[in-house]
Write a structure and sequence with these properties.
The complex is a heterotrimer of chains A (400), B (343) and C (252). In chain A, helix 1 packs antiparallel against helix 7, helix 7 crosses helix 8 and helix 8 crosses helix 10. Chain A has 400 residues and is mainly α. Helices cover 65% and strands 5% of the residues of chain A. Chain A starts with 5 loop residues before the first helix and ends with a helix. Chain C folds into two domains: 161 residues, Rossmann fold (3-Layer(aba) Sandwich); 61 residues, no CATH class. Classes of the chains: A mainly alpha (400), B mainly alpha (343), C alpha/beta (252). At the A-C interface, helix 7, helix 8, helix 9 and helix 10 of A face helix 2 and helix 3 of C.
Chain lengths: 400, 343, 252
């Protein structure tokens, strides 16, 4: 189906299922239960899952396939955000032009940076992309203030021209970004028993884009183009002596992944029409690296998992404070309770980055293939067990 | 003329810090072939060695001072540092005042141990892994170290003043025969520059004139052959990692009066230091030092008002711009050698 | 006029004159061996042919077109394939994919975006890949990771990757270096078989006299960066100058 083989189709259907049913899957606990704080089914967070999923999928097309480690991908995210907010300000409050233009602007930006950076490889490439992104960040925060809003950021205002639908600002409020009248912040709550599920317009729009982005990345992975990119990662010398010019391939991959980042940035601005320079900072670039590696670079589903994992823990782990810990361990004797709380304290709440760093290190050390490899190993463990159960049958087979 | 001299001078201290960090990075890269993203964290830990020493020195117990009364007439409780009990008031005040330079003595063993533990415990296992893996694991380590410091010392910068003697500024211009009050330069920055020069000179002397250094240099050139000579190169490389950690740490210790230590200073410096290393040429020690000073001075010149008026924002981007230009015109950096990190 | 003409080529590295005044002509459909002691400039010469190095002086033409200043992939697209001293293959990919990549390069040129058509739908590519794998007896290993192959198989895979492009000129850089005698003989047989089946010109750089004398139709002896003699194997064997420069040391 969809021009994919059975395995890829299944993967795509799983992702579609996850996106469609996320409001249920993310809210498994009744709202008034003690575990409700682990619910992630609120619009803001779910939007971030899919948007960063797009960002990570795009990064993975570059890093996972070609092995070029870009440390400046946030620049494209930021460029996309700025472009989108400007579209919302100048053109129309409808998000479609904003999203399209943000993708194109980021693509053009990536073409420029990629053309220069890809003249070098290895760490030199990483440093060049880092330098470009830091430059973009520094300029956005200072000199380019008229375009970027400087440190306060760029946002929509009441008196924006919005040449296509200027009337929308006549209501006295700043109009919210919308898809042909359907506001991105519109949500519909469904209460069943103790559960409450939120269906958010913006989330589903972003989710739709993520499914499209994921489908396209499968196509790229399975196409001759993707095969060439993998070949670049493995042995660029051989590729050149095989009559292929690696430069346009890497540049195309770089631009595509920059466009993915721009799309993510455009969606971010469409959900919340505010773009700040910090979106371009190198820590933001580092974050997408973490997502791709943690999930499993070079795999299809890995970056999505990584993005979900990091965003989930960023929001949920960071909300756990000492009081919550005390509640959890309340059943224990006071001494042990306090001891456990003291031990866990640095790892949760504001210290969740410490947990992230540790998990990341463990993954790089023991699971270079990320969470996907972890899953595969566990899967293999079970299938091996099954095989040993069937061993009498296996033994009757003639030896090869 | 004075303006140029002033900019040269103020570029020196930033340049010194870049040069020191880049030197350590290059030592590690040149000897071990590891790209260490946790190096900035070592610089930051060095800075927090100063903070720790300060806290140790000012560890106090409460004493009821009958000579002072609060507004109700009760005797006042005062905090008296333990060292005051041991050494007397004047000496202890001097010790606390000189805590930043004293922290050097404190930081050397601490940084050596941290460096050696890091190398034996983690980095060692990554020699044969791809550079991307090394970058990633040390990046993770940098996050972890940074967060540990943040958990313990908090997120706010902690001031660590220079000794009183070096506080304030002086008229450096007059020393050089310029008009008075044209080139005002803080004492401590000069101290920092001098300190950096000494550290850099000692590292080079160490590598140049000791047998240990000779083996390490040979190892940098051709690791396998040196290993075949029956020399345990691994042990020496571990020591080199400790040494590099020390250099970074000392750079951090002495930097505290210029910039109050905070948990993310390592990352801030790391990004620029990598640019410095790459500009200098991966694996070239003189290149790292040269590039450190060049970029420091360049940044200082770009911050001049006259320059900013012509090219707004140039002060923010000049280092990156220089890096991009140099990398595109001289692929191996200023003094880089052929064949390093080119695959 | 040979298929490959090398005229007055010279190359300097700093103070070292690696090649000087090299004149060489490789006739179409022959096996031409270039031999010489270590440091004679064999590899430098080869690198000048494939675009890795640019000679300081002289000209290199292939089928009448100059090769100088062209990038490796452009030279390959003209019909020159190269086998490396240590096999260069795509280790992370399967054997089949390894062979498909040169197929794509041969059919689609140096760059082809073609992002939408899936690999599975490229039947013609798969067919020619399978065909060449059958030719080198590796069909049953098509789904193995290339990195896990034995050294001999890697060599054969690399050979297949070059042949699937149907090159006019195949450059072989010490194709039997570091091989056991049995493997060397297998490689010789493979090369001979290839030669029988197709119209192909081969230029072999080789150390092993056994290989050279069992295959080559012409031999050029290189010494200190310049050709000493060029002749048939029979005449080379008895040539006094060659004895002195090269074979002399082997006969001691």
């Amino acid at each position: 189906m969809f021009g994919l083989n059975a395995k890829d189709t299944r993967l795509l259907l799983i992702v579609i299922g996850l996106v469609v049913f996320a409001p249920f899957l993310m809210n498994p606990f009744p709202t008034d239960s003690g575990l409700a704080q682990f619910n992630a089914g609120y619009p803001d967070l779910m939007q971030r899952f899919v948007i960063f999923g797009i960002f990570a999928i795009g990064f993975n097309i570059l890093f996972g396939l070609t092995g070029y480690l870009s440390f400046g991908h946030a620049a494209f995210l930021g460029a996309g955000s700025y472009a989108a907010v400007w579209m919302l300000k100048l053109l129309t409050i409808n998000v479609i032009p904003a999203i399209l233009i943000s993708t194109l602007v980021a693509g053009a930006f990536a073409l420029l940076i990629g053309f220069i950076s890809l003249r070098r490889s290895g760490i030199y490439f990483s440093i060049l992309t880092l330098a470009f992104a830091q430059m973009a960040f520094a300029l956005a925060a200072s000199v380019l203030t008229p375009i970027t809003g400087g440190e306060t950021g760029l946002q929509t205002a009441l008196n924006d021209p919005r040449i296509l639908d200027g009337a929308a600002s006549g209501t006295g409020n700043i109009p919210a970004p919308a898809l042909f009248g359907l506001e991105m912040r519109d949500s519909w709550d469904w209460v069943v028993g103790g559960w409450s599920f939120t269906f958010n317009a913006g989330y589903y729009l972003a989710g739709l884009f993520m499914i499209g982005a994921f489908y396209l990345s499968i196509l790229i992975f399975r196409s001759p183009f993707g095969l060439m990119l993998k070949a670049i990662k493995t042995n660029q010398t051989r590729l050149n002596y095989t009559g292929l010019n690696s430069r346009p391939y890497t540049l195309a991959a770089f631009v595509i992944s920059g466009m993915y980042a721009g799309l993510a940035g455009g969606l971010m601005a469409s959900m919340d029409p505010l773009a700040g320079a910090e979106r371009m900072q190198w820590t933001a670039s580092g974050e997408v690296v973490l997502m791709a590696i943690l999930g499993g670079a070079g795999t299809l589903i890995g970056p999505v998992l990584g993005a979900g994992f990091i965003k989930y823990f960023e929001n949920i782990f960071s909300k756990i404070n000492d009081n919550v810990l005390h509640q959890w361990f309340a059943f224990m004797p006071d001494g042990i309770e306090n001891f456990l709380v003291t031990i866990l304290h640095p790892f949760v709440g504001k210290g969740w980055h410490l947990t992230l760093g540790l998990v990341f290190m463990l993954v790089v050390i023991f699971l270079p293939g990320g969470l996907v490899e972890g899953g595969q190993r566990i899967g293999r463990l079970f299938s091996r067990k099954k095989k040993t159960d069937d061993s009498p049958n296996a033994d009757t087979k003639p030896a090869e | 003329m004075e303006a140029i001299v002033l900019q040269l001078l103020s570029g020196l201290d930033g340049g010194s810090a870049y040069a020191l960090i880049a030197l350590g990075l290059t030592l590690i890269f040149g000897t071990l072939g590891v790209v260490n993203f946790a190096h900035g964290a070592l610089f930051m830990i060095g800075a927090f060695c100063t903070v720790t020493l300060q806290r140790i020195l000012t560890l106090s117990h409460t004493v009821i001072d009958d000579t002072q009364k609060d507004f109700l007439g009760n005797p006042l409780k005062v905090q008296v540092p333990y060292i005051q009990d041991w050494f007397g008031e004047a000496t202890s005040a001097a010790i606390i005042d000189w805590s930043v330079p004293l922290a050097i003595i404190f930081a050397i063993p601490v940084m050596l141990i941290i460096g050696i533990v890091m190398e034996r415990g983690l980095i060692k296992h990554f020699y044969k892994r791809p550079h991307a893996d090394q970058i990633l694991v040390t990046f993770g380590l940098a996050i972890v170290l940074q967060e540990i410091i943040k958990a313990y010392y908090g997120a706010n910068p902690i001031p660590a003043p220079a000794p009183d003697v070096f506080k304030g500024s002086f008229d450096f211009g007059q020393l050089l025969g310029f008009e008075a009050n044209r080139i005002i330069y803080p004492y401590w920055r000069l101290v920092y520059f001098g300190f950096a020069t000494i550290v850099i000179a000692s590292v080079f002397a160490f590598l140049q004139f000791t047998t240990f250094g000779m083996v390490v240099r040979a190892g940098m050139a051709d690791r396998e052959t040196v290993g075949l000579l029956g020399i345990d190169i691994d042990k020496r490389f571990t020591m080199m990692f400790g040494l590099a950690a020390c250099v970074a740490g000392l750079a951090g210790v002495m930097y505290t009066p210029i910039n109050s230590p905070n948990y993310h200073m390592g990352m801030d410096f790391l990004v620029i230091s990598f640019v410095v290393v790459v500009v200098g040429g991966m694996g070239s020690l003189p290149g790292a030092v040269l590039a450190g000073f060049v970029l420091g001075i360049l940044q200082s010149f770009a911050s001049m008002r006259e320059v900013i008026e012509v090219l707004p924002g140039i002060n923010q981007v000049v280092i990156y711009l220089a890096a991009i230009i140099i990398l595109l015109t001289r692929p191996r950096g200023l003094l880089g050698k052929r064949g390093v990190m080119e695959d | 006029m040979g298929i490959l003409e090398i005229k007055n080529v010279g190359k300097r590295f700093g103070g070292l004159q690696a090649l000087s005044d090299v004149n060489l002509s490789v006739e179409e459909n022959t096996v031409h061996a270039i031999i010489g002691p270590n440091g004679a400039g064999k590899s430098t010469l080869l690198n000048c042919l494939v675009g890795k190095l640019i000679p300081d002086t002289g000209s290199v033409t292939f089928q009448g077109q100059s090769l100088l200043g062209r990038k490796p992939h452009e030279i390959n697209q003209m019909g020159v394939s190269r086998v490396f001293q240590t096999p260069e293959i795509f280790g992370d990919l399967t054997v089949l994919e390894n062979v498909m990549i040169p197929c794509f390069a041969h059919r689609d040129g140096a760059f082809q975006m073609n992002a939408i058509r899936s690999v599975r739908h490229q039947n013609d590519i798969r067919e020619s890949a399978d065909q060449i794998l059958t030719d080198v007896n590796m069909l049953e290993k098509r789904n193995m990771h290339a990195a896990s192959l034995s050294r001999g198989d890697k060599r054969r895979l690399e050979m297949a990757m070059c042949l699937v492009q149907d090159p006019k000129l195949l450059l072989l850089d010490e194709p039997t270096a570091g091989m056991a005698r049995a493997d060397t003989n297998n490689t010789i047989d493979l090369l001979k078989e290839i030669k029988e089946k197709r119209d192909i010109t081969m230029a072999i750089i080789e150390h092993d006299m056994h290989v050279v004398f069992s295959m080559a139709e012409r031999i050029t002896v290189l010494a200190q960066g310049t050709p000493l003699v060029e002749d048939t194997p029979e005449n080379i064997k008895g040539h006094p100058k060659v004895r002195e420069a090269y074979l002399g040391e082997a006969q001691v």
